[in-house]
Amino acid sequence: MMRVSESKTTEEHDQPAGPVPHHAAFAQVTRGYYAPIVALFTATLIISNICATKGVEFLGEESLSLGPLQILPIATDGAFFLFPLAYILGDVLSEVYGFRATRRAIYYGFAALLLTVACFAIAIRLPAASFYENQEAFRTVIGTTPRLVVAGLAGYFVGQLLNSATLVLIKERTKEKHLWARLIGSTVVGEFADTLIFCSIAAGAIGIDTWQQFVNYLIIGFLWKTLCEVLVLPITYRVIAILKKHEPSYAPTDVAPLQA
Question: Mind listing the domains of the chain with CATH numbers?
Fold first, then answer.
């Protein structure tokens, strides 16, 4: 009887406490807006870096110069209409979630760009099927040169980090006041660094081969991106206000340190 009792006690010990679950186990998805913003941020970077491989010229029939500066025609790249969105999203991330979270998003974007470049390189080198007649067109569209890859990665990485760090440093002094100063000030610093690095490396790869064209490309790109930030400032304000209101972890304090 003793052995049976001991055996029964041991079996009861081995049974899990409480009712056995009827469903498979899954991790819970953290609520909040950070993940979708990072997804849009990363998608914008990938798309804009592909579009940037195309050289674009406006008013090509006109010619106007002011010293070394070529006013007309206006030379830029195919991502001029989209790339400012990446900095607007970067500002939103920095203002609401801080430097550490934004830096993590930048790392995600950097890794996604590297993966994109690697996948494109592999796809180009795969043997084309006998019925596929667009191999050269495929190579031309997505076969970005090493110079453009380096330009995009370097400009993005440095510019976005400077943009985020500048915004958060200004916020340390202004707290919740003067949001416009943080948004515009960080954009000026980040966009100028990004544009200077990208244009310096990529200009020749997209067909810009004169000093006048380069200065035009640099200045037009910088002014356009900064102007976009100013024009959409009311929208950026609204998005930031909504996120601050609905993110339960956002709690303004008297001190907003730059997180390491």
Answer: 33-246 (1.10.1760)
| Per-residue DSSP letter, 79 | T
Environment class of 13 (CB within 10 Å of its CB; exposed 0-12, middle 13-18, buried 19+) = exposed
237 by Cβ neighbours in 10 Å (0-12 / 13-18 / 19+) ranks as middle
CA distance 178 to 164: 16
pTM to 2 decimal places: 0.74
**Structure confidence by residue, pLDDT tens digits, 25-80:** 777 767 778 999 999 999 998 888 788 778 788 887 877 777 666 677 777 778 77
pLDDT at residue 4 in the model = 52
φ/ψ (deg, to 5) at 47: -65, -45
How is residue 244 written in tokens?
A: 């601050």
